[in-house]
Amino acid sequence: MAVTAPAELSAAATLIDFWNNYINPAVWYSVFIMIIVVINFCEVKIYGESEVFFAILKILLIVGLIIAGLVVDLGGSPSGDRIGFRYWKNPGPFNAYLVPGNTGKFLGFWSSLISAAYSYANIQVVAITGAETKNPRVIIPNAIRMTFWRVLIFYVVSILIVGMLVPYDDPNLGISTGDAQQSPFVIAFQRAGINVLPSIINAIVCTSAFSLAASLIFMPLVYLSLGSNSSVVFGWFVNITTIAGLIGWLIIEVTYLRFFYALKTQGISRDRLAYKSPFQPYLAWVTAGALILVVLFSGYSVFFPGRWTVSTFLTYYVDIAIFVFLYIVAFFFSRSGIVALEDVDLSEIADVDHEKAGILHSADQNFSRWRKWII
């Protein structure tokens, strides 16, 4: 999570280049860092309200983009061109990468997993809010359940709209000038002859990147981008932070599997828990296996002839070395092995049973129907 901050600050500066690329990015980095430091020195109420404000902007932006994208796709743009699924037929839904044919299309899909995973990074932090939430045993499970619908609407539907509006062979998708002109939504509206929306999109996305960085640390790392193109360094940060996040998810999966089998070994039913996910432990095993594959083969492209660079290789695989090193150091100093399943401390489940009935009853009485759906 912490390393995400420089990536977001780099992204914010890149977005500003859309309007003005004559000012050194270091100026924007310094301005953003100063504002973030001031916000973090404020009381929790001010910080929380600022994050809520930025979150509302992001939600309104995504909903607006989906609606505007549908209007453009159905012929409501100034050009009057009805696009439909035209670009899914010509040039097609998948672009070959590195090698021609279906193999190249699969490699292109695989290479996009890192960029896609970056968007989902830290989605698990909703559980961290439990310490500052009233009735967390009710609120957190409900929030987790709603995560599926938020991902479906704000991520999957928006990507579907982009795929309908912009063909993969659009030359603007491949530019790396350090500005935001390669944003798919910006390209889509520029192709439709709508020139005002790109500036609005970039302004709100810039605040989005800035607000996320406000909750993280390691911000001075963003100055590393001054020695290279900001979009290139942003790609490095994306790789490093995404792989770190995937390793974190893998640890979560391993921890859950240990918890699951500890419950089974000690004869404790999962029905006593505040939340019980379905299809376990099979989903956890499948997810863990998929994460291992993505982490190990994330940087496969550097091994193709003529594509090897040390910097790119390190951005994909340095996290693995860091994790192994930290694990060995922790094991050396703690001198504690893996706890046997029958010795795992699950005594707090009795406290859950004691609190669960009263909390659920009070929550059902206090929440209206629409509020239950939102949370």
Automatic annotation (TrEMBL):
The keyword Secreted does not apply. Keywords: Membrane, Transmembrane, Transmembrane helix. The chain crosses the membrane at residues 22-41, 53-72, 147-166, 200-224, 236-261, 282-302, 314-333. It is a multi-pass membrane protein. It holds the Pfam family AA_permease. The keyword Signal does not apply. This is Amino acid permease/ SLC12A domain-containing protein. It comes from Didymella glomerata.
